[in-house]
Amino acid sequence: MFLGKQDSNMSARRVRRTSEDYGSITAIAIDKDKNSQHALKWAVENIVADAPQCVLIHVQLGDTGGHFHQDNPDEAHEFFLPFRGFCARKGIIAKEVILHDIDISNAIVNYITNNYYIANLVVGASARNSFLKKFQSPDVPTTLLKTTPETCAVFVVTKGKLLKSRSASHRHKLSRQQNLSSLLYNSTNSIDSDSASISSPVSTQTNKPNSNFFQPNSPRISTPQSMSEISQSETDNGSCDMVSTVSSYTVSDSSTTIGSSISSTSTESPLVGNYVEQQNQNLEAEVRRLRLELKQFNKDKDTTNQKENSQETPWSDEKIELPRALSDRETQKTQSAAFQAAEIAKRIAKMESQKRRLLEMQANLDKQMMFTTVSYRRYSIKDVEDATYGFSDALKIGEGGYGPVYKAVLDYTSVAIKILKSGITEGLKQFQQEIEVLSSMRHPNMVILLGACPEYGCLVYEYMENGTLEDRLFCKNNTPPLSWRARFRIASEIATGLLFLHQAKPEPLVHRDLKPANILLDKHLTCKISDVGLARLVPPAVADTYSNYHMTSAAGTFCYIDPEYQQTGMLGVKSDLYSFGVVLLQIITAQPAMGLGHKVEMAVENNNLREILDPTVSEWPEEETLELAKLALQCCELRKKDRPDLALVLLPALNRLKEFATEDHERIQDRTSHVSHEHNSVPLSPIPSSQIEDELRKSY
Questions:
Q1: What is the pLDDT of residue 321?
Q2: How much is the CA Rg of the chain, to the nearest whole Å?
Q3: Selected catalytic residue, list 513, 531, 544, 576
Q4: pLDDT value at position 363?
Q5: Active site residue 192
Q6: Domains (range + CATH), the chain
């Protein structure tokens, strides 16, 4: 049966109800035209919102000889990127499918026929005008309306509105639990016992165009433990089955990895810890959803009562029977509402209980990892207290989000001790992360971790005499400004340390919080990257330009966070390049990071870069400084794919600038030494030694 525009709202409501009843999956046919975006938006707002998973189908056409143009992974990623981003913002699980055929309609119909769980098909209307339609063969939407299996409803959308639709005559009755089980972890046992154990939930699978991703018998990721499955049977008022699961899931194009943690001597515990953390997050989300559902239920109930009370009219001949009937009906409604509210409260209580168990398991795992998986020098709290004279304010040299930093002496060595503030849960994760990273790697441009006190969250580092790069750029405590030669060298050293993290084995490491305050300078002004507590491992398969490693929340400092990572949660090694670009701009301007990229870009376009450079440096080399500014602006591009490669482009260019600065410094040294030698041979007009020292100091 075909429906016109006047029935569009009714059709949308009908298919939403059907999706709830059967737990169906919606497929959206997408292409490069604008109506594909309208179709996806309409589907999310009218259908997918009640069953948050869908299939994005794209058909690549070939000739009659069976030759197809195969998109490479980069092109496929670029094509699906706006659709994937829209689904991610709406909380929709999107499966991407590419079909190859010589006929678009035939490919889509065959796919729906072979995947019986697809109950709705949404397609954008054809772009051809009505005049051309009379002389050409039927377009794709018209063909799909006629040939799609009767078990699947078809909706044709144009400019965000439903143009035509055809309802399904009958459906395969699949429960929502069956459909969700294909996206979530398969389970065999519940976690009711206190002795329940969790195995490492890691699985890798390459998606094929026609893989049965949503079928219950084709699990993508499996774990031996299920957290909870709670269902509420359909009631007389038409409420649908509700199945809640606390299993974690991730969907990707090429590979799926869940629970990746930093490698240590124990390869299982970090994965388990991350899995428990994911379960905990899903539990919290489910509890919040149930509470909102209960709140909305009570609100709807009050609204309905008010409407009914306002619509009641007195009946002269039923003055006795009407109050009794109203009372009975109100009693039944109250009992039904109380029963439903009790069921929701019971489910919330069960979720809270499971959340507490997960937190206990996480705490036990963290404790085991802290004491068994990492090798480092351990200090007692008494050692730390004695070294800092009872945490004296006179030895306090800094304060950060993690906690205060003290200068001290341990084992006859000057050290900096960072102490965790009490009550900071996130700080414990950063503490463990920093120990695991810094204790397992050494590099001249990475700060050295000398030891730790795990009981109180104290980290002991080598002491850096010149503080942070931020302090030196802004001349804190009237320290002398850095010369342009030193700044060029520091820029190259930062890139070297960053590349070391990105090339870490077995998996690249993304810093996520690179900024001048986290770059330390020793007595020779050699830079060392610190504060890797927010760093995250990225699977090698996705550590390239087009990363699809999804993080649930962005971390870092506001002005330095990669905009694409902040918007989509997609993390990759080029996320650090945006932060690095902002740091480079601050190195040459010594200005705050807010809006700095726009200022420098305008200055470069107007050929007045010198006006925005740090005025404390009077001899900026014009060409080299302009080159450094352009490199920084390239790093600050909004899209990852537009940023240069660190190893192939950035580091070689920065090394050339470093060599230029070194050669200039050596020329000044030679000239100063030559002048000093000449004047020593002519004692009648000596040059004061203080003048020579000042010239050397300014040069480097």
A1: 65
A2: 32
A3: 513
A4: 66
A5: no
A6: 2-174 (3.40.50.620), 177-310+322-372 (no CATH), 375-463 (3.30.200.20), 467-673 (1.10.510.10), 674-699 (no CATH)
